[in-house]
Amino acid sequence: MDSSSLSPYILLFNALSQIPTWHYLVALLIISITFLYKFLEVHFFEDVFFKSQGTPITYNPSSPFCNAILSSCKILHSRFVATTWISSPHFQTAFLQFCGRSPVFSYRRHLFRTSDGGTIALDWLMNADVSGGACGINGASLPMNNAISQDETTPIVVVVPGLASSSTSNYLKNLAFNLAKHGWNVVVSNHRGLGGVSITSDCFYNAGWTEDLRAVAKYLHDKYPMAPLFAIGTSIGANILVKYLGEDGEGTPIAGAVAVCNPWDLLIGDRFICRRLLQRIYDKALTIGLQGYAKLHEPLYTRLANWEGIKTFLSLSNAFRFLLLLCYKKARCLRDYDNYATCHVDKFETVDTYYRRCSSAAYVGNVSVPLLCISALDDPVCTREAIPWDECRANPNIVLATPQHGGHLAFFEGLTASSSWWIRAVDEFLGVLRSSPYIHVQKKQTSGQHSALDSSIDQYPHLHVAEDGTVTAASGEGKRDGIEDIKNLQMLSEEKTTEMLSNAEQEKHVTEAKSDFMSETCQTSEMAKNIQGVESPDITSPLRRFLNQISQQNSISTWLLAFIAIRTSWPLVGSITKFIFRKRSRKIMPAA
Predict the structure, then answer these.
(1) What Pfam families does this protein's entry cite (predicted)?
(2) Which pLDDT score is estimated for 502?
(3) How many angstroms separate the CA atoms of 502 and 225, rounded?
């Protein structure tokens, strides 16, 4: 058969069949590698062929502190080069979790009691322990006793761990050991219920719970007044630290601080972590860790939270549960956990309310302490979209370092990935800061301290009714005092209602009835603006009558309201009148 009469598809198939099979395998391998290179955000060739100048740093150019400190921080200015065989943010983060190595030592434990009956495990690693070889056996805590005298001048750094992390996490042990080796006394402030300590009160930690850090900082400052106090926060711990520094402002005893891989805005982070498949993997992994935390404290969660929602996947094995979570898009995630647990325990109305109130980005402008912030732009957990660039640049106390790569709390460098860039940068920054004149000195606050989760920007409007009947929004009362405020409001409203009823019997005029109607319309709209969130018919009705009585005394306001009503409705009345007359004229014309 003539080849010209064959179908072009048959000719193409015949040509492709002549190509060796191994050529197809090589092509498939190249395509797969290219796809994975992009999908896993590998930056090997970028590191080799497109070398950057150094770490981008954002700061206030007019700040003497930033200019002086940054001129001495060589590591912070240097370019971070990831370990070649884990040159991906996902490889870096996975290596930290599963393959990270840590030095062998033991902490000295001190159980700190909070004012509400809670227990916080403070794990100490002294400079003397590292230099003197008193680290002991790994895993066996040494007694604290009086390891530090009250006249000790060695600087202390308190470390706030990340979500579901404790002092035994590899990255925290590396951080503590490196700092202690360079002349610091390190104390890791474990979150409530972590570090092998039970929860002894009805209070759990969350992403914005600053009260524990505030209490620990005050305790350390009061007990060791001669030792400068610094702080480091990692991941969620960085969010707690920055929020605390913004809440207390000049009143904090912290002399300097570092925030590493801060999520900044929890609402943006919540949207980001559910966006792509890889991010959802981190979401599910973190959820499993939190479910394990909840299982440790099941009796309290059963009483305070929605335990039926929390335990959804607890009965499954870890491996099967993780695969199921990946395959089922609507499976349990961090947001569901916060909905079933955090919102119930800490009395948040919704999950979004919790995220908004606990985000540290809103507190950046009020930070009065020298603060170094390190956030990798390729962080797979805390997105760069949430970084408050302008706020950090405007604050003269903040230095923001944003390496192009590094993953989440990883930053492994060297051929063997034996060191972490951010730990070296933090050690250098704090070392320069503690010997400089720019360390923060605590000042007495003129106004009261912000309590945890109850800052001025967090508060919803609370009602305050004075003795003369004036209704105002009372700030700083706190959410837990809202019920008492409403009860007092009800009692005062009942008294005013009794007085109004007696006055109404004595004054019965037609003109006052008209003004009553007009003022009721005005004051009802005013009430909708001032009393948001209070839904109680027993409160609204007496208040409306009382406000109507006040408006009767001001006839000018009533007539002004009537004029405005007529003036604004006049175009509508004119249009209706014109339409009616036009319709009548059409009916008359045929009759004529």
Answers:
(1) Hydrolase_4
(2) 44
(3) 64
Contact 36, 88 (CB under 8 A): no
CA torsion through residues 522, 525, 529, 535, sign: positive
The tens digit of pLDDT for each residue in 173-200 reads 999 999 999 999 999 999 999 999 999 9
- Residue 347 Cα distances to 104, 210, 338, 353, angstroms: 41, 16, 11, 10
Q: Please state, in angstroms and rounded to a whole number, the distance separating the CA atoms of residues 334 and 341.
A: 10
CA–CA gap between residue 22 and residue 235 (Å, rounded):
47
Nearest to 451 by CA among 63, 112, 148, 114: 114
Rounded Cα–Cα distance for residues 19 and 9 (Å): 16
Indicate the residue type of 141.
S
Please report the pLDDT score of residue 305 as a whole number: 83
Cβ neighbours of 536 (radius 10 Å): 12
Residue 203's nearest CA partner among 219, 218, 215 is 215
In this structure, which amino acid lies at residue 323?
Answer: L
CB 125 within 8 A of CB 176: yes
Contacts of 198 (CB under 8 A, 6+ apart): 119, 297
What residues have CB less than 8 Å from 151, skipping those under 6 apart? 226
Instruction: Classify residue 508 by its DSSP letter.
Output: -
Amino acid at 437: P
Block residue for tokens 């400190």: 69
Which residue has better confidence, 101 or 2?
101
381-399 tens-digit pLDDT:
999 999 999 999 999 999 9
